[in-house]
Amino acid sequence: MKRAPCPPKAVRELTAKLDSLSQEHGKRQLAAREKQMSQRYHKIKFFERRKLERRIRDDLQYVLFFPPAEKYVSVIKDPGELEGEARAKLEAERKRLRGMAWARRAEEAMVNEADEGAGLLGPLPDPLDHDAPEAIAEEQDDFFLQDTASEADSDAPAPMPWLPPSSARLSQRLRRPLMWPAGLLPTHLMTARPMAGASMRPCAIRRPHSTAHVMALCQCPIARGLGPEKGVGMGAPGGSAAEAVADVSNEQEDVVAAGGC
Questions:
Q1: Is the pTM here over 0.85, yes or no?
Q2: DSSP class of residue 4?
Q3: Most buried by CB count within 10 Å: which residue of 39, 62, 95, 200?
């Protein structure tokens, strides 16, 4: 059966696709051939490269370390243009000069190796140089000037850092007498209640249960019923702590004898 003819647009599209595939196939074939040739001649190229590097290095050393007292023979001149005898003579002369150049290079290398640490030690003073002591004196003066400047900077007052209070200062603060203001006696130290068969008093003092209570009573004149102007305590200027404790003990005995708390 005969097929129907393709439209021109489809023909153009298929032709362009065929051309692109042909180009892609040619590129892949070229890459495969390059890889094959590279693997085949890799060893030969490696050895030739090493030979050329060695030859260039020898020619460069020949130019750099050529003996200055000898007549220079060009290393670029091709001896193939000369005849047999002249060519042999040129090769022999080059060989002799190359040997002298290599000997000079080895000698300079030994000198440089011997002087390797000379730069670290610094230049030695010349015994005929009369300005050397003055230079040393100037260096010493500069050194002392730097020390003076550093001392001046160190004399400047440094800012004082904040420090917490020491244990001695804290203990000194805790040892200060505790003075209760008038009318602010703690309730656990003073209780007001009426007493039958006895004269009414504004308050009755309980028996203190510890030395701390006694000391608190000694420091507060209101608890003793004496008033601020007659109080005698550790913080008051009128008496000592022993007298205050004795007064409180006497008052406690009076309260107990009267039938108080």
A1: no
A2: P
A3: 62
